[in-house]
Amino acid sequence: MAELAKVVDSSSEVTRALIDALGAETTLLDEDVNARGAGIWRTDTIRAQVLVRPKTTEQVATALKVCHMHEQPVVIHGGLTGLVEGALTNQGDVVISLERMNEIEEVLALERTMIVQAGVPLQMVQETAQSHGLMFPLDLGARGSCTIGGNISTNAGGNRVIRYGMTRDMILGLEAVLMDGTVVSSMNQMIKNNAGYDLKQLFIGTEGTLGVVTRAVLRCREEVRSQPTALVGIADFDHLVRFLKHADRGLGGNLSAFEVMWNDYYRLVSSPPAQNSAPLSSDYGFYVLIEGMGATEDTLMSMLNDAFEDELIADAVVAQSEAQRMDIWALRDDVEQVFQFAPAMWFDVSLRIPLMEDYVEGVYARLQSEFDDAKVFTLGHMGDGNIHFAIAPGDDSVDTRRRVEACVYEPLKRIGGSVSAEHGVGLEKKPYLGLVRDETEIDLMRRLKQALDPKGLLNPGKIFDAS
Ligand SMILES: Cc1cc2nc3c(=O)[nH]c(=O)nc-3n(C[C@H](O)[C@H](O)[C@H](O)COP(=O)(O)OP(=O)(O)OC[C@H]3O[C@@H](n4cnc5c(N)ncnc54)[C@H](O)[C@@H]3O)c2cc1C
């Protein structure tokens, strides 16, 4: 009793109101909040006055109503694997974490849909789909920790976009709670529904600035029984682009991954201290992980043989077992090797494929001219026009970060690219939104924010300034 009194004394009015409305078990305070990491690959911890862990949509609505009444800023947390400072908080913030809304409510195998709560980890969705003879196509390296609510809010992309699209393409309906506590239930279960505005789109890719996603209807696919996978070595970019077209045609529409590693990244992840070894010589300019979900191994082999004959590719290794397939993916996914050179900055940009070679060469040249020994590693979901750079410029000062960002982002304006392919904007890319979106677009974004959250309380300051 004495302890509860102490907690309540040291808390603000809004915290007391949240504890009254939701109970102490749902509201974490002090070290229970501060001991939690602020995000993957971050070394700081969460700063917030209270962290609310609702179990139901009604509790989310209650928490938001209380915060709305007290004009209290709120930040939403999923699995905290986001890479653009979208879930960062201030000490005065209230955090709503979806971690206890983690149930799969229903799997409708015949209709190939699944109804889930927003805090369910992506991997659990994938495994549940598989246990019902289905497949949920979204896949990314953070699958074990990221949540479906976070995937929706960032419109996550990942490894199979070339075939199945982004998260947006896998959501049939969703439920969200607005800042004033209004529950918008748009749990559509049909593939086609053009009756008025498609309201779910307001909450997909808007990074928790317009509402809290609480539940969703996911569109699954029939389980895929074959996934032939190969790693291919290619001499230069021209051959790489032609091989993409060749592979897409040769696999008859089954190309599901075209993951490219530049030579510098391939060497990084296939030599010590990295655990994986190099399945192909390290002398090629580019390496492609190619996967054809639903294709046969014969089709893959025949496509590769034709590519050899046409001298599009220099070498290839085809996975002969599931273990070998996983080994090839492990090479591609070993992104944490860049932290050997910490501090490292991650970039996620998008541009038309024919412009990619000149763009990347330009970024390398500018970095080399500005920094004595910056390390650069490049990879990406190249089939989707998406490149990731990991850049270790040598120090982590704000000035260095801004100069590196200028090297990567500024050229995108001229060539019509995007500063964010799939990670979102958050706080990190906010200064660069205006490079790739015009004033009219940003103004319309502001008007939507104003309509749904007029007090500007939900994930404030993220993506753009509300006024
Ligand atoms: C190793 C690794 C690999 C990755 N690979 C990819 C990749 O291939 N493709 C890709 O797109 N991303 C990738 N990411 C980035 C990240 O995993 C995704 O952005 C993911 O979708 C974030 O989900 P989360 O649950 O961790 O969200 P969080 O990090 O918790 O939050 C992300 C944003 O969404 C908001 N949010 C979270 N939950 C909700 C909710 N229920 N309602 C409203 N807003 C909410 C937050 O406020 C924040 O703005 C990768 C990250 C890592 C670490």
Main sheet: strand order: 15-12-14-13-17-18-16
Shape: globular
Distance between the termini: 45 Å
The tally of helices reads 15
Coarse structural class: alpha+beta
Count of β-strands: 18
Query: Structurally, how many domains make up the residues?
Result: 4
Largest beta-sheet details: 7 strands, antiparallel
Q: Could you tell me the mean pLDDT?
A: 96
Strand content: 15-25%
Q: Class of the largest domain in CATH?
A: Alpha Beta
Low-confidence stretches: 1-10
CATH topology title of the largest domain: Uridine Diphospho-n-acetylenolpyruvylglucosamine Reductase, domain 3
Q: Which helices and strands, and how do they pair?
A:
Elements (H helix, E strand, L loop, with lengths): L1 H8 L3 H10 L4 E2 L1 H5 L15 E3 L4 H13 L4 E4 L16 E4 L6 E5 L4 E5 L4 H10 L2 E2 L12 H7 L6 H4 L6 E7 L5 E4 L25 E8 L1 E2 L6 E6 L2 H14 L4 E8 H7 L16 E7 L4 H13 L5 E4 L3 H12 L11 E6 L5 H15 L4 E6 L5 E7 L5 H18 L17 H4 L2 H14 L15
Helix pairs in contact: 2-4, 8-10, 12-13
Notes on the structure:
The chain has 4 domains: 2-97, Uridine Diphospho-n-acetylenolpyruvylglucosamine Reductase, domain 2; 104-222, Uridine Diphospho-n-acetylenolpyruvylglucosamine Reductase, domain 3, CATH 3.30.465; 229-333, Alpha-Beta Plaits; 337-425, Alpha-Beta Plaits. Helix 8 (237-250) packs antiparallel against helix 10 (297-309) and helix 12 packs antiparallel against helix 13 (398-415). The protein contains 15 helices and 18 strands. Helix content is 33%, strand content 19%. It has helices at residues 2-9, 13-22, 30-34, 57-69, 122-131, 148-154, 161-164, 237-250, 263-269, 297-309, 322-333, 356-370, 398-415, 433-436, 439-452; strands at residues 27-28, 50-52, 74-77, 94-97, 104-108, 113-117, 134-135, 171-177, 183-186, 212-219, 221-222, 229-234, 255-262, 286-292, 315-318, 345-350, 375-380, 386-392. A hairpin with a 5-residue loop joins strand 8 and strand 9. It is of the alpha+beta class and 467 residues long. A 7-stranded antiparallel beta sheet has the order 15-12-14-13-17-18-16, with helices on both faces. The chain has a 5-stranded antiparallel beta sheet with strand order 5-6-10-8-9. A 4-stranded mixed beta sheet has the order 1-2-4-3. The protein binds flavin-adenine dinucleotide. The site of flavin-adenine dinucleotide has 37 residues, from strand 3, helix 6 and strand 10.
